[in-house]
Amino acid sequence: MSATELDAALRAGAKVVVLEVGRETGEHTEARRSYLAGHLPGAYFVPFEEDLIGPPEAGAGAGPLPRAEDLRERLRVWGVDDDSTVVVHTRQSPAVATRAWWVLRWAGVADVRYLNGGLSAWRRIGGALDTGVPPPGAGTAVVRTGSLPLLTAEEAGRLAAAGHLLDARATEAYVGDPHRTGTGHIPGAHTVPGSHNFADGELAGPATLSALYAAHLDGRAVGAYCGSGVSATTTVLALASLGIEAALYPGSWSAWITDPARPAATGARPGGAHPPPAR
C-alpha cells in the first residue's frame, strides 16, 4: 500500500489498523522513543522480539513463530477484526515489517499491507503525525495459523533439489567458509539477497523484481529462507507482489545447522550435498 492510498483510506474512515514495528525490547528504547515522538495516526507500537518471535523451541532456530494464543491476544489489543485492513511499517530494516506482514497473514489475517516507503513516504505526502498512544482495542479476529505455506527442514532440502529454494541472506553468509562448521548454505539453494528487493527505501517495481527472479519463475515451487526467518519474508512479499506464492522456511539456516547430519554447501554456486567439516 502506498502512503497516498493509506491517507485516502484513513480519511474515508475505513477499518484500518496501523502497526509500527520496532526491533528493540524494553520500555525505553530508541525505537519506542521515536514512536512516542510522532507516529502515523492511531498506530500501535509493536515490539518485534516480544510480539513476532515465539518462545525458544528445540530445533526451531533463532526466530520461532509466535504461538497462536499469543497472536490472538495481540490482535485483540490492536483492535483487529476479520474485516480489518492491517498496515505494517517500520523505521528500521524493511524485513522488520515484512516479518510482521508474513506472521499476520500466516495467522489468518486476510488483508495485511506493507506500507511502501514507510514513515518517509508518509511524510513526503504531508501526512500528519500523532503523539498519543491508542488505548487497547477489542479485536475479534480469529487466528488461523497455517494460512500461508511454510517449509520444514526436510521440505526445504527437497525443494532445493526439485524446485527453487532462495537464500535471502547477504552473499557472504551464503558463500560461507569451507573450514568453518555451520557456514554456507542449503545444498541446491540459490542466492538472492533480500536487500535486492528494495530500491531507495521502497519495494522495487514489477519489472525490476521480475528480472531479479526470472531464473526461478519457471512454474516449479518456490521457497525462501535466510538466517532466522526474518529477511526471507522480504522475498515472500516481493514474489507475492508478482502474483507468486512462495513458502517460507521459518527456522532457516539457524535451524538447519542444529542437526549435524544435514548437509551444507559453501561457495558461490548452489553446490551439491556434502557434510559440514568435522569440528
UniProtKB/TrEMBL annotation:
GO terms for molecular function: thiosulfate-cyanide sulfurtransferase activity. The keyword Lipid metabolism does not apply. It is an enzyme of class 2 (transferase). It catalyses: thiosulfate + hydrogen cyanide = thiocyanate + sulfite + 2 H(+). Keywords: Repeat, Transferase. Gene3D superfamilies: Rhodanese-like domain. Pfam families: Rhodanese (PF00581). The keyword rRNA-binding does not apply. Its EC number is 2.8.1.1. Residues 12-131, 159-265 form the Rhodanese domain. InterPro entries: Rhodanese-like_dom, Rhodanese-like_dom_sf, Thiosulfate_sulfurtransferase, Thiosulphate_STrfase_CS. This is thiosulfate sulfurtransferase. The lineage of its organism: Bacteria, Bacillati, Actinomycetota, Actinomycetes, Kitasatosporales.
